[in-house]
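User: Teach me something about this protein's shape.
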Amino acid sequence: IGNATACDCEVMVLSYKRPCNDTSLRHVEYLYDPSTTWSSGRNVLYEAAMARDQRSLYYIIMDDDVQLEAKDKLNIPNPWRAFERSLLLYEPAIAAPTWTDPEVPNDPRVWFLRVLYSYRRKLGCELSARSSDFIPVVHFDAAFDAFHRDSLRAGILPYSTEYDDVSWWFSQRKVQIKAEIMFRGRVVTHTSITCVNAKHRWYPKAVISNKILLSMVDEIEERELPERYKESTSVISVLQEWKEHGTSHYHKSSTLCLKPLNIAL
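Assistant: First, the predicted structure itself:
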């Protein structure tokens, strides 16, 4: 992340095993809560960040073991700063690096992009040379997510904790669904910066069923969607697509063919 000079940022770190009393880094604040899960722990950080003056343009929520890297042959000496510059240039609602799985053979750093481009080809998307560091997505991994402050003010968070006994993945699924509904085309992945989790720990995990996903869509529509979005024709259209596609919306959505949109548009 960098020291207080290199990083124009404030850092909040949550621990759950034991408190950290290190005061050597003036831009870092340590929090402690031994009762948290993945979802509730991120909510602790989210609420603590929102209790501050909210002057930051982006709020990045990330796992403790995330490593950022540039794709092969790219002259990017510091992927962290490069990712931040892209955020300031394009101002997406939500952005994530390209997630990688080190267990996937044959260059895991481009595995997610290969899958994404295969979806785009099947949809008949224009695959000409990109003019942007970002491409719109529906799925974005939870390991490293940058939220524009306007997306937070619109109500994209906090994370749902109701599914934590079944799968810690489901809270991110709900964020993905809500993000697609509220910010279609403004949720993006960086094609040149990748992230990987160095550690793998046990936690509840399961593949989401169509039934649970559709119940999430209903919950968002009925109880969580801000009023100003409910009459939007584009929001109504995306809601209908989720209901028609179910879990297959991740690879059938027309979002995958869009050019990245600035949150202000």
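Now, about its shape. The first strand starts at residue 11 and ends at 15. The chain is about 35% helix and 15% strand. If you'd like, I can walk through any region in more detail.
User: That's plenty for now, thanks!
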